[in-house]
Specification:
2 copies of one chain form a homodimer. The first copy, chain A, is built from 10 helices and no strands. Chain A is mostly helical. In chain A, α8 packs across α9. The longest helix of chain A has 23 residues. Chain B binds a DNA duplex (30 and 30 nucleotides) through α1 and α3.
Chain lengths: ~220, ~220
DNA sequence: CAATATAATAAACATTGTGTCTACTTATAG
DNA sequence: CTATAAGTAGACACAATGTTTATTATATTG
């Protein structure tokens, strides 16, 4: 999760890492608002002044972790070979979002604490909004590719924006529940469940009478 | 939206209303965190001390509006005649959540500003979490009724909790988008779109290859 | 309408946290 | 080794919170 890669002075790296770790731990203990700069530097065994040598304020510090997390996730997704996007192993739900979804749940499991903090909406409002936008962009991207490949109707039955926000919200909802309940399913399984609802729809999932609208 | 009904002293009602209105207006202008108690009482033309005669702090004041909003919505839903739950007029999507969904979008349209504030996550974290829990309870309630009527498989293909959180998240996502974009569709229409995605699923909505899982 | 109770107010105060600055010490890179 | 950069303690001004006190104003009620 590249966060201090090639900064010159050894002290700088150490200090920043200590501040980051102290802050995240404290947020989980008392919640963002209750944590003071003095708390952070105290926990990190540093002088309060030092904090301001590195960050403008609490939010700036949290934002750094967020940015690194986002960069890491999009990196992982981008680095995954295109080939895998078609041949990935859940033949029941062959949608184009399958692999990214799996990677995202996986990633959240690996960085559960930070994801929890973000999804709880700790810190300023921007934080969670940032994530949402990224998810929406990913969806729009995938949809655009699909349209180009003519696998999706040019005039979909639902406006893409509505679909994208539906998706982003549902994802956030399931991910939040999953994290707050200490990952009751393995990442691949929760991803599969998510896809099942998303692709099949409530009619099938709940066994309700089928809708009268045909596909497309 | 019952908020000052039978409080004895006329002054109390006036003061509380002024504080509430001033606060909500200011949040929309500068965001929750940036608003001080002095801002509020200034805007409301009251002494700063007066604020503390009525509320413990900013969050307390916001919470009052939230509680009233929630009570109002659940009241509206509860008051709607059961008969309407079956005969409501969207025959393409006859799901049991149809009418409550419509009522919710309607309600959000009528109180758009307050909904915006809440959905943006202004105020403390509790606020938005409160709403989510209410939505989840509603869903669980409806699902329980359905199960009792044996219209839903006893062992649904997806754990109810997962479905409920999927739903709650998707709803929040679409509702937020709708409000932040100044209600680009009428409430009935956005409710119908939401249901379409939810019931038919992405496969149909986007015209993807059908899943191999049958209903139920 | 008058008497009583209650609300609003201004002013002062202690407290907590922020963010900046200074002069001094310590660690590191080269 | 030494110049450079990072960390530190302490002091400071500032802004906002939440409480208290004494005083004024306004409803309610009988």
């Amino acid at each position: 999760m590249e966060l201090e890669s090639k900064r010159i002075d050894r002290r700088t790296n150490r200090t920043r890492r200590q501040l980051r770790e102290a802050f995240l731990a404290l947020i989980l203990e008392k919640g963002y608002d209750a944590v003071t700069v003095e708390d952070i530097t105290g926990r990190a065994d540093l002088g309060r002044t030092t904090f301001y040598l590195h960050y403008r304020d609490k939010n700036d510090l949290l934002l750094e972790s967020l940015e690194a997390l986002v960069a890491d996730l999009t990196g992982v997704i981008a680095r995954t070979p295109i080939a895998d996007w078609r041949t990935s192993p859940d033949p029941q739900h062959p949608g184009p979002l399958q692999l990214p979804l799996r990677l995202a749940f996986q990633h959240a499991a690996e960085h559960a604490d930070l994801y929890r903090i973000i999804l709880r909406g700790e810190g300023r409002t921007e934080t969670i909004e940032r994530i949402r936008q990224i998810v929406i962009e990913q969806i729009n991207h995938v949809l655009a590719v699909r349209v180009a490949e003519e696998q999706v109707p040019v005039h979909p039955t639902v406006p893409p924006e509505v679909f994208a926000n539906f998706f982003a919200g549902a994802f956030q909802g399931v991910l939040t529940w999953w994290l707050e309940n200490d990952l009751p399913y393995p990442p691949t399984e929760i991803a599969a469940l998510f896809q099942k609802i998303l692709y099949d729809g409530a009619s099938r999932v709940l066994g309700l009478p089928e809708s009268k609208t045909g596909p497309g």
